Amino acid sequence: MKKKTVLIVGVSSFIGSNLAEYLKKYFKVYGTYFSTKVSIPGVLCLPLDVTNKDSVQLVVYTFKPDYTIYCAGLTSLKDCHEDPKFSDKLNTVGVFNVSNFT
Known about the structure:
With about 100 residues, the chain is of the alpha/beta class. It has helices at about 15-25, 55-65, 75-80, 85-100; strands spanning about 5-10, 30-35, 45, 65-70. About 45% of the residues lie in helices and about 20% in strands. The mean pLDDT is about 95.
């Protein structure tokens, strides 16, 4: 039986990396990161800017995941305060772009 696929957007996050480690036992797992490169044995990880709609579409259409888990986001309150436009873009536009194609 073929394993179902999971795409974890934000695999470099604490939750994303731990989910990848756990889910790789049961699923074919793909992960994306923005700037913090990740290497998880058994998981294909690649860079992705979730605010770039064309890039998101390419990743989703390439891997055709059965499930997508969004773990990306700006979690530092200091960073959110210092750059609210980027924070809003990452925490809202990114979610919209990913959900639009999955």
